[in-house]
């Protein structure tokens, strides 16, 4: 059975990854990158250019004059918004159905990931008063390892999903038994190649580790809260399975229960905004 590292190498060798997106993401974390560098790379992807200009000219930014250049658009939306836009655009094609849907659906996973990303950002902003775009990125990309497994060992992944639903056990345990690795390890290794922030990489790797007490708030604890709420609202990655909330988060949720109820009530409105900005919820 291939290891997590071997799966990632094989997946990367298949050239399924959007290389413009990878280059932009790496450039964002480089202090030597200029606006001209961004423009030269982004213009290689016409769809990304269209999304970028649509985003900066949307009502969300309420600019007096229309922006029609890549460099100006990057200045207005900021680096982290650019990175999140790139991540959404890069993942869109990867999450499209490859045919076999029984027990696992890429379209369902896309809806789960979008919901978790939006919830994570809402929790960060409204519960903790923190403006942190890393939580959106962690949410949208946290289950990318499942796409790798689906592409390379899809039948085994479906067996693992079925085992999780049947025995109500964590997916990473079922993956360990059947695939001999799990999507958290695979996703972490894949996203390391993208040069993503350390906190996002940790969240991808440990978001199913409920036996560890993480700081509240942190990217990983917020991601765990968002994923639990998404699953309870039937936006889970695996239909029919809801993982229990990590025990260390239970006192926090009980203490802020009213705030979370208000947050959940406003989720549909926030999802509509995300669709407008990123077209995140498109089929």
Short synopsis of the structure:
The chain has about 280 residues and is mostly helical. It has helices at about 5-15, 20-30, 35-40, 45-55, 70-75, 80-95, 105-125, 135-140, 145-165, 170-180, 185-190, 200-205, 220-230, 250-255, 255-265, 265-280. Helix content is about 65%, strand content about 0%.
Give your account of this protein's structure.
This protein has 283 residues and is mainly α. The chain has a domain at 4-16 and 95-278: Hypothetical protein af1432 (Orthogonal Bundle), CATH 1.10.3210. It has helices spanning 4-13, 19-28, 35-42, 46-56, 70-77, 79-94, 106-127, 134-141, 144-167, 171-178, 183-192, 198-206, 219-232, 250-255, 257-265, 267-278. Helix 4 (46-56) packs across helix 6, helix 7 packs across helix 16 and helix 9 packs antiparallel against helix 11. The longest helix is centred in the middle third of the chain and has 24 residues, at 144-167. The model has no long low-confidence stretch (mean pLDDT 89).
Just give the CATH class of the domain at 4-16 and 95-278: Mainly Alpha
CATH superfamily of the domain at 4-16 and 95-278: Hypothetical protein af1432
* Overall body shape: globular
Extract low-pLDDT stretches: none
Number of strands: 0
**What is the CATH topology descriptor of the domain at 4-16 and 95-278?**
Hypothetical protein af1432
- Helical content stands at 55-70%
The string of secondary-structure elements, in order, is: HHHHHHHHHHHHHHHH
* Helical run tally: 16
Strand content: under 5%
Radius of gyration, in Å, reads 19 Å
**Coarse structural class:** mainly alpha
């Amino acid at each position: 059975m291939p290891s997590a590292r071997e799966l990632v190498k094989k997946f990367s060798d298949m050239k399924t990854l959007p290389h413009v997106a990878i280059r932009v993401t790496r450039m964002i974390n480089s202090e030597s990158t200029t606006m001209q560098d961004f423009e030269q790379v982004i213009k290689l992807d016409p769809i990304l250019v269209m999304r970028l200009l649509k985003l900066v000219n949307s009502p969300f930014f309420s600019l007096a004059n229309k922006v029609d250049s890549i460099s100006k658009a990057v200045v207005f939306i900021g680096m982290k918004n650019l990175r999140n836009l790139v991540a959404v655009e890069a993942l869109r094609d990867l999450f499209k159905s490859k045919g076999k849907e029984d027990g696992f659906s890429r379209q369902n996973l896309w809806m789960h990931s979008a919901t978790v990303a939006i919830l994570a950002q809402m929790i960060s902003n409204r519960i903790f008063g923190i403006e942190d775009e890393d939580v959106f990125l962690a949410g949208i990309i946290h289950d990318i390892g499942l796409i790798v497994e689906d592409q390379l060992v899809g039948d085994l992944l479906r067996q693992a999903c079925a085992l999780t639903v049947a025995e109500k056990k964590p997916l990473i345990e079922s993956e360990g038994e059947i695939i001999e690795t799990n999507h958290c390890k695979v996703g972490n290794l894949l996203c390391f190649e993208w040069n993503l922030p350390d906190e996002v990489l940790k969240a991808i790797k440990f978001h199913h580790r409920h036996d560890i007490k993480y700081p509240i708030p942190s990217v990983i604890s917020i991601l765990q809260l968002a994923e639990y709420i998404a699953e309870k609202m039937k936006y889970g990655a695996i239909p029919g399975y809801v993982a229990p909330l990590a025990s260390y988060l239970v006192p926090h949720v009980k203490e802020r229960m009213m705030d979370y109820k208000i947050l959940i009530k406003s989720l549909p409105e926030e999802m509509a905004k995300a669709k407008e900005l990123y077209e995140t919820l498109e089929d």
